[in-house]
Amino acid sequence: MIRPAKIKQKRRIAGFSLIFCAAILAYPVAPQAGAQSTLSAANIGIILRNANLVKSGVPLNATVLDKKVLIITDRGQRGNTECKIDAVMIAKTIMDAFPDQIMQVKVIFSHPDAKLAVQANITAGDVKAYGAGELKPEALLASIELMRVDGASGDTASSAAAVVQGPLMETRLLLLHRIESLKAHGTGVKPFQDLFAQIEQNAKNGDEKQVKGQTDYLAEKLSEQEALLRQAQAKLATGQRGAKAGSASSTSTSMAGASELNARLATWESKVNQWKREGRDCDQLVASFALVRMWLTSNPDMAKKYLDALDATGVEPPRR
Q: What is the rounded distance in angstroms from the CA atom of residue 142 to the CA atom of residue 121?
């Protein structure tokens, strides 16, 4: 016996297929698309915004190389099926605007939880086959695989000038998108940008091992900052201010204490400069100091804990 819940689910899926079928075939290209003769990241961004596929205020990165386009935007609350639908809509809109100029659109849906960041590849053949009635809605969606974004695909042709050619391009693009997303929410991101610049230099040099370590480190720190942002937004929404550790932490250290922390950090930076002259590998320390600089104003207690740990361990980096 089929349960009522199952029947409702099947009806919902059937109804969705009809709606999806009508929407994907009839979805209008943005009015300005016909006038956009040049295939460029800027024009793609305008088209997607005008088509309301990526709403104003939601971060959007578009890159173009040859006949491939890479789109990065936030996943938000989308489920897997919604990600697939939006990826198809985005791809079709771009391909309609630039006929015969694009062979593939890759859409990456970013998320603070790396496990929920996914990518979908849509080819011109998929879109044309569906439009010609050769592919049913269910078959089209089933053919689209949502993959984790881990930078291991090796498809460097799908990435473009936003990052340098080299190891883990998609991972680096996703990190860049997360930095820009934090910036859009008013977060100071210079320490993250500085870290990213170091990663780009190592990527340019082809140092995959160093890039992997640094991207993992930056991803962890971005996750921490994104968590703080979500906490701040939750407190603002509920009217609870200064009640928990986040706000208490940022006010518990006095001005005198902040001066002491600055002096301690300066001492460590002096040591690192000496170690660099000796040819030691100080990249991770330099990267961490950028974050400590940020913490001195945003979270002094965190800065103090980090410096206390350095003092306790007496870390000394190895020679390169």
A: 13
| Three-class secondary structure assignment of 164-185 | CCCCCHHHHHHHHHHHHHHHHC
**Which residues neighbour 126 within 8 Å (Cβ) at sequence distance 6 or greater?**
88, 91, 135, 140, 143, 144
| Residue (of 70, 17, 14, 62) closest to 41 by Cα position | 62
pLDDT tens per residue, range 276-302 = 888 887 777 776 777 777 777 777 777
Q: Quick one: average pLDDT of 140-144?
A: 85
| Cα–Cα distance for residue pair 176/62, rounded to 1 Å | 12
Please, are residues 75 and 109 in contact by the beta-carbon 8 Å criterion?
yes
For 99-132, b where at least 16 C-beta lie within 10 A, e where not — what string? eeebebbbbbbbbbebeebbbbbbbbebbeebee
Asked whether the beta carbons of 188 and 294 are under 8 A apart, the reply is yes
SS3 content of the chain, % helix, strand, coil (to 5): 60, 10, 30
How far apart CA 72 and CA 33 sit, in angstroms, is: 20
Up-side HSE of residue 239: CA atoms within 13 Å toward CB? 0
Q: Would you say 132 and 149 are in contact if contact means Cβ atoms under 8 Å apart?
A: no
On whether the CB atoms of residues 63 and 153 are closer than 8 A, the answer is: no
290: Cα within 13 Å, side-chain hemisphere: 19
Percent of the chain with pLDDT over 70: 74
User: pTM for this one?
Assistant: 0.51
Asked if 122 and 91 touch (Cβ cutoff 8 Å), the reply is yes
Instruction: Compute, in degrees rounded to 10, the torsion defined by CA atoms 272, 273, 276, 278.
Output: -100
Q: Are 135 and 34 in contact (CB under 8 A)?
A: no
Whole-number Å distance between alpha carbons of 200 and 242: 38
Cα 141-94-112 angle, rounded to 5 deg: 65
Please state the φ and ψ torsions of residue 246, each to the nearest 5 degrees.
Answer: -60, -55
Say whether 11 sits in a helix, a strand or coil: helix
Average pLDDT over residues 192-215: 90
